[in-house]
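Work package 3, deliverable 3.1, input record:
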Amino acid sequence: MNSLEKAVTQQIMRERKNSEREEMVNAILPWDKFSQWLHCICVVTFDLELGQALEFIYPSHIKLSDKEKMNICYLSFPDSNSGCMGDTQFNFRIRQTSGKVNHHLLVRRKEYDRNSPVILQSDPAHLFGFVYFRQVKDKSSRRGYFQKSVVLLSRLPYINLFTELVELIAPEFFDKGEELIEAACHDIDQWSNPVPGDTLQLPIMGTVLQVKIPAKGDIKIGALGIARDAVPQPMGSPLTVVPSLHAVETFMCLQPVLPHIQLLWELVLTNEPLVVMGPSPGITCGTVHALINTISPLKYMTDYRPYFTIHDSEFKEYTTRTQGPPPVILGVTNPFFAKTLQHWPHIVRIGESIHAFLDKSKANKPKKPGSLKTLESKPGVYTQYKSFLSKDKTIQKRLAKGIQTRRPYEVQDAMLRRYLLELTQSFMFSLERYVTSLMPLQRNISPWKHPPRLKAFDIEEFLRTVEHSGPQLTSGLKGDWESLYRRFFKSANFQGWFQNREEEINQKLLLLHLEALSEADLLKWCNEREEVEVVDLVLKLRERLNDITERNLPVKPELIQKLHQGTESIIRSLPEDLRGVLEK
Amino acid sequence: MSSSKGVNDRSISLFPEPYRPDATPYKVKDFHASVRNLASSNKTGSIGLQMSKCIVVGDVAVGKTCLVNRFCNEVFDKDYKATIGVDFEVERFEILNTPFNLQIWDTAGQERFKCIAAAYYRGAHVVIIVFDLTDKFTLEHAEVWHAEAVKEMKEAAFLFLVGTKKDICEEREFKEMEEKAVKLAKKLDAEFWAVSSLTNENVEHFFCRVASMAFNDVMKKSQEDETDGKATKKVIAADSSLISLKPETGAKDDEKKSCCSS
């Protein structure tokens, strides 16, 4: 066999292997589609002997660790016996401690994450739980009550979609029994994969939900609004449009603390420890999600628990006094926390009725944390933190006027989101611009050199740019922006954001470099070089090809083929002995 | 389920006739004049995407899934696999040059899933009760399915009684069954069809008839709403979001399949 034939055979073998791999990835097995959306569905019931207990998990092959089971059981029920009669909905977030993910699921998830806005990426280490809890009088039960929860577990932060989904499934399940969960799971197993940018129609229990999966860069002012259809769809309509996968009603949830909205934004932005105390899990999780969302499109990088109980496996870790409070946001309802978390620097206390809140005189000043002794304390923000930025009176006035004139919630919501988004963008703009200045120049990308990388981030250098062209130009807000930046640089939010940008940019540079390589006349270059340089190039080419598979770079197959062919032809041009070594 | 889904829309311009003129309560012979008018004024796509929901019920193993698969995926799978819960398909039509989607909810015939069917009946525009032409019991049982549907449905729906496995039915047996089925159809106020999913006999024709009747009705209603003036905004709002969200419809229209029209 001559070397050309050999090369061709090798190429064919490689292609075959690739296509086999692709086939493996493309084959659809039962539960594959389901697993792209949900981890599983659990039913938690109150057992007289055991307390909260897992009644069943569907699909049944899903295994949860004991820790996960325990957390799910406690988090699926109200923590304190504070009523919650009838039906209640809330959600939680737990650490995932179980299970290996099969390779092919992982490939799809990576692809999803790459094309998704950061705040909608799947969570690799946590599971979200969406709870529908029913508590009603039931004479047939020995305890006199029917108490049961349906919980959807997922890695996707689709707060809005899954809240609606469990609201569709749970009441029917309480009515009809286990078969309904089975049928609902089967419906979900027919859903198309969540591909960013796609609009999907998802059949579920006789109706079809239409959702748009946002793509990277889709999260803009327009797309942010919850745009809850002002016109309700006719009953029994074959299609329900779900306006947003993840948006929560920011205005409604944050209304009780509106006067402190900027202060809260700073606390969230800089990953300060924050606890939200509320009368029910529904209220705490609304508030926690709304807080996380204040810095959107930035992703909140540390842990947050929309609902956290004293039974949580992280309870000790998060409440210990031997270290300072962790940089997390917790939502709690149990009065016990008022004492346990007394030492926390920032406490948000939300009252029972979050709608009626107009008492301006008392609410305007943050309260001292020491004054919070019990959960009976007044609603408000308890902190000694002083905002770096001065208060924006305009937005406060506009929102207050809206409350007085009973402006629709949707409009207030859009106004508040827009304000927060612009604030975050003003803050991030200088950073984005600075990072762009760290990019190497196009002419530094040479096929014969290593791919260039982003230069290092220099805090002082950045702050010098802020002096003359900082956020004060776009936002109009006065204050100590520099100190806020310094605080931000110490936070995980900054680390996460920068790492993400760095990775994106370096990947882009890699791609540009690959393109330059594929367009270069490799053979001509080799003709003018020493053998040792040529060998070096072959090794580099192989390294690049390796990069493509290892980092799963989005490269056209033609480019890969071109690089393969280039490598092969260089090898063929070499003397036989060297060829033998390189072809191994 | 959708592995070999045909991407071409089915296009209909003539109103499909019933299987037997004497075995249908629906006397409509053509699209309503106002519907034709509305459709012909739809050059700009102003009507938006219309859709209807159709639910398929019937005893276990009568061939509900085979019927749906034959039509939607153009396949016939001889191996029997029980449906869990409900299978779902959307079939795209182009009726009088207007895009129309038929949602097909294919339910499980097993007893243990009977309790969940109610959730799936909601808002159905068409109910297809399927029975096996070679099994008398499944025809008799169609009455039970009918009662179930009537109990769960709040609004009127088009009702079809469909006998399957025509290909393995001997002629004498077939005549006998057909007579019984026609009788039952009359009693239930349903339209009767006899089909074979294996040979594809009448399957295409049947679903095009279903789609045309549903389309005619939906369009008429949306127009009545419009002239009423009250609900106009609702319909338009819901639909306009639909059409803007489905940009892919246009791209695949190059090659249209023609059915039930010449």
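Confidence is low (pLDDT under 50) at residues 1-7, 230-262 of chain B.
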